[in-house]
Amino acid sequence: MSAYSSVAELLALSDRLDLPLWKTVQTVDCAGQSMTAEESFAAMQNLLSVMRSTDKNYDPSQRSVSGLSGGDGGKMDAYIASGRSISGPLVGRMIAAALRMGECNACMKRIVAAPTAGACGVLPAVLIPCGEALCLPEEKLVEALYVAAGIGEVIAQRASISGAESGCQAEIGSASAMAAAAVVHLRGGTKEQMANAAALALKSLLGLVCDPVGGLVEVPCIKRNVIGAVNALTAAEMSLAGIESRIPPDEVIDAMREVGDMMPAALRETAQGGLAATPTAQNR
Fold first, then answer.
1. What is the CATH number of the domain that holds 53?
2. Burial of 84 (0-12, 13-18, 19+ CB in 10 A)
3. I need a surface site. Which of 76, 184, 196, 251 has the fewest CB within 10 A?
4. Is 172 a residue whose pLDDT tops 90?
């Protein structure tokens, strides 16, 4: 059982311990796993290393066994390199990174489930490009992963991170909330701003259904990683600007759980509804 089961409790614990949010999450993790701070940091650093290597070793010529995915990350890279992008280099890099990660997952390459395999592209697509754009040291990105982990832990406890249980809002939505809080940390925001960013990101994706074509985590899942990443950035920007979520983070999480409970089974990873039930999907 975690030392916190709500964002409010996590922030209060941070105050009580007089530690930054990331260090609070690490401290709780170390106590729960009986490891030193150095061991914990090394383990988290390894996860970041896997994210980096997966991004770097992406092969645009590779296709998934189903043939549904592969190559789009390369197309996006080429488009950004052409200088024709409307969104600019940072957002373009994020879009490409999310596509690459999702395609690597579909092609059975090594990824980090953050918090799930289907949402593996969101967090690295935000952290890695932002880290490069801001010229941040490795340690800062590892700290941001702890912040993301703390938010993910609360969502997993209070609601769900499973598409089969609560729809894609529980996977892409959770990942986006985690990434939004992480970005605020990268920019030196307060723990309250991190919590607000998570709330803003998650509530923007409430009700997102899980409707994988053919039951595979490829269509529309990979492109939703892109939406989750960009959504995280906009949520972080709003929070850093001083904009607050009118609904507290824990209430947003609870609402997500309730929406998931009300969601028909056909829209929860059964491949029986939504895009999975369209004529094109059925004819594959």
1. 1.10.4100
2. exposed
3. 251
4. yes
